[in-house]
Amino acid sequence: MRIGVLASGGDSPGMNAAIRGAVLRAEVFGLEMIGFTDGWRGFLDGEYIQLDRKAVRGISPTGGVIIGTSRVNPFSSITGEPEDYEMIKRLIQDYGIDGFMLIGGDGTHKVSGMLQRNGIPVVGLPKTIDNDIAGTDYTFGFDTAVQVATDAIDRLRTTGESHKRCMLLEVMGRNAGWIALHAGIAGGAHVILIPERAETLDQIVAWVKHVHERGRSALVIVAEGFKLKGDDQVTQESLDGFGRERLGGIADVLAPLIEENTGIVTRATVLGHLQRGGSPSAFDRVLATRTGMAATTACYENNWGQLVVARGNEISLAPISEIAGKAKTVPQSRYEEVRVSFG
Q1: Cα atoms found within 13 Å of the Cα of residue 334, Cβ hemisphere only
Q2: Interatomic CA distance for residues 129 and 139, integer angstroms
Q3: 339 in helix, strand or coil?
Q4: Among candidate residues 174, 227, 175, the one with its CA nearest the CA of residue 204
Q5: Which of 176, 133, 142 is closest to 309 using CA atoms?
Q6: Using 50, 70 and 90 to split pLDDT, how confident is the model at 236?
Q7: 223 bridge partner residues
């Protein structure tokens, strides 16, 4: 059996550990693995590398992904046309692979579901710092991103207190507030703003003022997909290859509004791609390695159409058809737990 490994979408800490786990398990089963370079671009252009024990030696602690990734869309349209699937099947035969191991986030696994429905064997590995894939408790990359954001909060707190300023930190997450919520709790942020719950400017100003009245300097963490109540617009930079908006810039919108309405000097920091880079945490290395091993086992057992998921302490499989296209967002109850303590 020969398996084609492909990473799609943004990079995420732990991807190399997942590939290593998959390859080491493949060696046990006597399977061959190749990795298409730069996501779907490599598959379409015929560029790949051999993935064996030597290729994955020592890569678990490294960030990024050794085979590269991209947001190239394998389809001629967002939904895919019949000729697209026929082309992919022809290339699969040309490469002599029995199926795909796809490493990606929600966009990638929408594609996974489309491939499976059209008779193309695939097993999915859920990676994303956003932690927004349905059916799994955690995605590898999330824990590392939260730690990076928490470190940033710790640093911003000291400079904010020194100058008596309000410090505003923008984190990633797309339309899910998991990074903001977890990092905000860990770092003791005074206000956490997430996409799942719109807040009024008056409420945010009231929280910041209350912190100031207590002799503290407010620290606000905001997810990139947050929007003010009554404002339907989310700050958007552009569209990616799958037609999804690239978000960012909400902190630069909020900072002058907070300063204008409080009289407190407010500074915005956009953490950006720092959340994606660098060495993965120990938690992400373990989760990714176990995910990779389970994915190879699923391929070996011809258990296609499955997403490898983490539920509690167990790694298991869930049908991609039940997960593709569904987002896991922060439940209202989780946000309310901390909201009562803001300000």
Answers
A1: 17
A2: 7
A3: helix
A4: 227
A5: 133
A6: low
A7: 171
